[in-house]
Design goal:
Elements lengths: L3 E7 L6 H6 L6 E6 L6 H5 L5 E4 L5 H9 L6 E4 L4 E2 L2 H11 L6 E9 L4 E14 L4 E3 L5 E3 L4 E3 L5 E2 L5 H21 L6 H18 L6 H26 L4
Helix pairs in contact: 5-7, 6-7
C-alpha cells in the first residue's frame, strides 16, 4: 500500500486544528507547518502529528512547498485546519492512492456558511497528488501541480469555510490585497469598466449559472460578497498604482 502524507498549514487555529488532525489519523505521516501561531495551536496539535515545522509566512505557495520538501509519503494530501475528512472519503482516498490510473485527484468542497453547507457554492480543487514532481505556484489561490492525469473523488470534504460574516469579509479583504499585488506586478491597469464588469459577472456566475439561488438566503449573501471581493481587487490595484497602502 502506498504511503500517505498529510500537510496542514496553520496560524492561530486552536479552535479547529484538533478535529482536522483527528480526521486524518489514518495517514502514515502528518506534517503541520505553522506560521508562528500565538494561541494554543501547537499545544493541541503536538500529540496528533508526526512533525511540526515553524516557518515565517511569506506566501501560500512557499509555505506549502516548504512542507512538501519534508514529506516522505508516496502521496500527499493537503488539508486546512477548518476541513475534515469523513470516513467515506477516507475509504475513497485509500482506494485512489492504491490505483495507478491518476497522478492526482480533485476533492469537492461545498462551502459552509450561515450554519449550513451550500452544495451549489462548491469548489473542486486538486489536493491529493503523487509527491514526486508536485509543487505549488501563485501567491494567493495557489495552484497545485502534478505530473500526470487528474481524477475526481466523489465524497465531499467537510469544509467549515467561514467563522462568521465578519471573518468572511476580512478573508475577502486579505485575498483582494494579494490578488491586487499580483496584478500590479504584471503591470495590469484597472479601469471603471473592469470594476463594473468583473464583479457583475462573478455575481451572475455564482448565483445563476452555478445555481446559488438554490441555496436560499445564504446563497444570495455569499454571491454578493464574492462579487464585492472582486470589486475590492481592482479598487486596491488603483491604490497600489498610486503608491497608497
Amino acid at each position: 500500500m502506498p504511503r500517505l502524507s498529510v500537510i496542514i498549514p496553520t496560524y492561530n487555529e486552536a479552535a479547529y486544528v484538533e478535529a482536522a488532525l483527528q480526521s486524518v489519523q489514518f495517514a502514515d505521516e502528518i506534517i503541520l507547518i505553522d506560521s508562528f501561531s500565538e494561541d494554543d495551536t501547537l499545544l493541541k496539535a503536538k500529540p496528533l502529528v508526526t512533525k511540526i515545522i515553524e516557518r515565517k509566512f511569506d506566501n501560500f505557495s512557499n509555505q506549502k512547498n516548504a512542507a512538501l520538501e519534508q514529506a516522505t509519503g508516496d502521496w500527499v494530501l493537503f488539508l486546512d485546519a477548518d476541513e475534515r475528512i469523513t470516513h467515506s472519503l477516507q475509504l475513497e482516498i485509500e482506494g485512489a492512492i492504491a490505483s495507478t490510473t491518476y497522478y492526482g485527484y480533485k476533492l469537492n468542497f461545498p462551502h459552509f456558511f450561515i450554519n449550513r453547507f451550500l452544495y451549489h457554492h462548491n469548489n473542486e480543487v486538486l489536493r491529493l497528488v503523487r509527491r514526486d514532481g508536485a509543487y505549488f505556484s501563485g501567491l494567493v489561490h495557489e495552484k497545485l501541480h502534478c505530473n500526470g492525469a487528474v481524477g475526481k473523488l466523489k465524497n465531499p470534504v467537510l469544509h467549515f469555510t467561514y467563522k462568521g460574516l465578519n471573518h468572511f469579509i476580512k478573508k475577502k479583504e486579505q485575498y483582494a490585497w494579494f490578488q491586487a499585488e499580483q496584478l500590479h506586478k504584471k503591470g495590469k491597469k484597472p479601469s471603471l469598466w473592469l470594476m463594473f464588469l468583473k464583479p457583475t459577472y462573478r455575481f451572475f456566475s455564482s448565483y445563476i449559472l452555478r445555481g446559488g439561488f438554490r441555496d436560499g438566503i445564504p446563497g444570495l449573501v455569499i454571491s454578493g460578497i464574492n462579487a464585492y471581493g472582486v470589486f475590492q481587487r481592482y479598487a486596491k490595484l488603483i491604490l497600489l498604482r498610486r503608491g497608497i497602502r
